[in-house]
Design goal:
Chain A has 110 residues and is an alpha+beta fold. Chain A is built from five helices and three strands. Chain A has one domain: Arc Repressor Mutant, subunit A (Orthogonal Bundle). The longest helix of chain A is centred in the C-terminal third of the chain and has 25 residues. Chain A is elongated. Chain A starts with 6 loop residues before the first helix and ends with a helix. About 10% of the residues of chain B have low confidence.
């Protein structure tokens, strides 16, 4: 499934669910929560996380307690606010799609 | 930003000819390393994260009984082609560099405008002081801050000079302040990149040179005609402020240089903290 335009929302939403987590665990959580629907090339998640960090929506730090040092990501207050905004936009979009496609399709969406 | 180089190549890199367990991941990391050349810290970070990701993925699969070679092939396949992943980092690095250039240029332009405003306003202070010392009724020629020998004829340009310098100084001050404020707003709202990391140090050096230049100018042969304000007291001849505007600008430049140096130290400290987090 093409996630362009939705990846930020999905990453922020997954981060809110998981709490502070490293990249691999975040990707696994995204895959499991989507029931395998969002099996995107995993490597593309890291540049997206870096961009979210530059935008101040997530923060990260090196966790050196593991055998290999790994980067742990967490949602910021701005990230939480952005998530709420993006969720609102998504629901507006979904409502519009349902209205256009008709109630019989909408049944299948729910 | 230091570039990614061979010292950053992950340990245990496979290379051609390797064929045992661990090779798929090592080969992938080698390829990724090659594609990340020129991306600096962002590339190093992605390489470290990629290695951790792949080895964790392989560890999770082998713990479930999947053979190592297969677990590696699948982990690498799921991660995506290295050139595709690296392209995103390269694109972001280019965008960041362009943003930093725009941000630094904008900041520089704003600071230059403020500096120009400061020189005009220093001139205003000088002219205002001279006007006070020599009321318009008295013969004096204040244009340029130089006074003629006594009785050298009337000069009426000082008041209009003061007004034009004050206008120019205030306009430059306003434009410079608006430029810096606008830069800050754009940086917040549109995500304009930060200024280049060495900008504070470069600014400190520029202001330092400016400070030395203004402070030493009155002592150079080019300043032979420059009236020393103290001469008025020494020789009883009305000479005006003389070196004072230069010293004021030198002091302002020194203050700016120290501020830029503090800024540089704060940036260095922030980066050091971020690196150890």
């Amino acid at each position: 499934m093409d996630l362009r335009g939705h990846l930020d929302l999905l990453l922020l939403g997954t981060l809110r669910h998981t709490g502070p987590v490293h990249g691999y665990a975040l990707i696994v959580a995204l895959r499991e929560r989507s029931d395998g629907a969002f099996a995107l090339p995993e490597g593309t998640v890291y540049p997206a996380l870096h961009r979210l960090e530059r935008d101040g929506l997530v923060v990260s730090r090196w966790d050196t307690s593991a055998p290999r040092r790994r980067r742990v990501y967490a949602l910021t207050a701005s990230g939480n606010a952005a998530l709420v905004t993006k969720q609102g936009e998504w629901w507006s979009f979904a409502r519009g799609v349902r209205a256009v496609l008709g109630p019989e399709i909408a049944e299948g969406m729910v | 930003m230091s570039e990614i180089d061979d010292a950053d190549r992950p340990e245990g890199g496979g290379g051609p000819g390797a064929g045992g367990p661990g090779d798929a991941v090592d080969r992938y990391l080698d390829e990724m390393f090659d594609h990340l050349a020129g991306t600096g810290a962002a590339g190093r970070r992605l390489l470290a994260e990629t290695e951790d990701h792949l080895r964790t993925a392989v560890g999770a699969e082998t713990a479930r009984g999947v053979p190592v070679a297969r677990a590696e092939r699948e982990a690498v396949a799921r991660f995506g082609p290295p050139e595709v992943v690296a392209r995103q980092v390269r694109r972001a690095a280019r965008a960041r560099a362009a943003g930093a250039l725009v941000s630094g240029g904008w900041l520089l332009a704003g600071l230059v405008l403020l500096l120009l405003a400061a020189t005009y306003l220093a001139k205003v202070v000088e002219l205002a002081t001279l006007l006070r010392l020599h009321p318009p009724a008295a013969p004096s020629c204040l244009a340029g801050g130089h006074l003629p020998p006594a009785g050298a004829g009337a000069c009426t340009s000082s008041a209009s000079d003061l007004r034009s310098n004050a206008t120019a100084g205030l306009v430059l001050l306003l434009v410079g302040a608006v430029a810096l404020l606008a830069r800050r707003l754009v940086a917040r709202r549109a995500g304009l990149g930060r200024s280049p990391r060495r900008f504070p140090l470069a600014a400190a050096a520029c202001f330092g040179l400016l400070c030395v230049g203004f402070a030493l100018f009155p002592a150079t042969p080019y300043a032979t005609g420059l009236p020393l304000g103290l001469d008025r007291g020494l020789f009883g001849v009305p000479m005006g402020m003389g070196i004072y505007p230069h010293l004021i600008v030198a002091a302002g430049s020194l203050l700016a240089a120290l501020s830029a140096l503090t800024w540089h130290l704060a940036v260095t400290r922030r980066l050091a903290r971020a690196a150890t987090r």
